[in-house]
Amino acid sequence: MTPTKGYAAQAAGIPLAPFEFNRREPGPKDVEIEILYCGVCHSDLHQVRDEWGGALFPMVPGHEIVGRVRRVGAEVTNFREGDLAGVGCMIDSCRSCQSCREGQEQYCEEGFTGTYNSRERTSGQPAYGGYSNLIVTDEAFVLRVSEQLSLEGVAPLLCAGITTYSPLRYWKVGAGHKVGVLGLGGLGHMAVKFAVSFGAEVTMLSTSPSKEEDARRLGAHRFALTSSAEALKGLNNYFDFIIDTVSAPHDYNTYLSMLRTNGVMICVGAPPAPAQIPAFNLIFNRRSIGGSLIGGIRETQEMLDYCAEHGITSDVEVINIQQINSAYERMLKGDVRYRFVIDIQSLNEQGKGDNHNEF
Ligand code: NAP
Ligand code: ZN
Ligand code: ZN
């Protein structure tokens, strides 16, 4: 057992605070990683507030993990001490159902094992995430990370990156397509980067006028303020795809009407409340709504390799872990540019801007 430092929520809606626990000794197939950076996903916030139900406390969130391998088990073949490594949203799955055999562990028929807010499949122990200085994970769920890219910019690729890369690949988005990206946050800014990189014409659909300049810098060809009827003029029947990354309840119908015939609205944002969608908005123009959940391990590696080849990383604001509760508050207001990433070194520093605000 290795004593590990982290930050945890003790119950729903309670600010995160220092928390100590033990990580297991690495088994034969395990990789022990000293965590250097961990991204802050809006899913962390949904879960520490128990907005999706069934949350397990204490909860150490964090599923955008990068660090250096410290030890490996005797049967590990892909990693050695000193290698960079990443862990995303999953640490295990059944490994035998059809989805797992196809490399789509996120759709495991028994349910994938989350990096946190879940129980380890074999031990039944609670799984604790990346807001901590160490993690021990089976190598089948550990990703290789390039030495070429800034590590803090790579961390968010493990969730925000793969969650947008995977559906854009599945729906074969590329040159000749018009794509709307709804919501410019962690997922949204990665969706813009990937859709542009794949050759699509990209329009940013945002509630924040202050993000227009950034949207263009990220590569968006157009920007439309969703609160402005004027800005939305001309977008009816316009897009082949809209990728919806919004975290809060919103009216899907406004955006469905922007899809042309056969257009697809791809939902990746996961607001807690259900949406109301009249069938007519789909029947006319044969529109569809689809969803997509992160991505499998094989595809996550493909995405990381693609990013290394094309120099793609997340735009980040690095924070100390003591700032996590105020970072959550800012995230709730859409004030994120465009991913908070925790410098895990700060776990060793006491009293640095400690913040225990309610959020
Ligand atoms: P985020 O960084 O907080 O970004 C969400 C963005 O949505 C905000 O920046 C804002 O963009 C927009 N927004 C927020 N509130 C809004 C409202 N009331 N109405 C309209 N737009 C609003 O969040 P994230 O980390 O990208 O995550 C986004 C969602 O995806 C979350 O629900 C998260 O749980 C989910 N998620 C899903 C998966 C998956 O596998 N499907 C994976 C990871 C995350 P503007 O300022 O531009 O309007
Ligand atoms: Zn996430
Ligand atoms: Zn499975």
Strand content: 25-35%
Q: What radius of gyration results from the CA coordinates?
A: 20 Å
Quick check: average pLDDT?
96
As residue ranges, the low-confidence spans are: 353-359
* Bound heterogens, unique: NADP nicotinamide-adenine-dinucleotide phosphate, zinc ion
Described by the principal axes of the CA atoms, the overall outline is globular
Question: Helix/strand-derived class?
Answer: alpha/beta
Total count of helical runs of at least 4 residues: 11
Helices and strands, in order, run as EEEHEEEHEEEHHEHEHEHEHEHEHEHE
Q: Helix share of residues? A: 10-25%
How many β-strand runs?
17
Distance between the termini: 33 Å
Multimeric state: single chain
Main sheet: strands, sense, barrel: 7 strands, mixed
Q: What would you say about this model in short?
A:
The protein has 359 residues and is of the alpha/beta class.
What does this structure look like?
- The protein is α/β, with parallel strands linked by helices and 359 residues long.
- The chain is 23% helix and 26% strand.
- The protein contains eleven helices and 17 strands.
- Helix 4 (160-170) packs across helix 5 and helix 4 crosses helix 10 (297-310).
- Residues 353-359 have low confidence and may be disordered.
- The chain binds NADP nicotinamide-adenine-dinucleotide phosphate and zinc ion (ZN) (2 copies).
- NADP nicotinamide-adenine-dinucleotide phosphate binds at residues 41-43, 46, 159-160, 163, 183-188, 206-208, 211, 245-248, 250, 268-271, 292-294, 331, 334, 336.
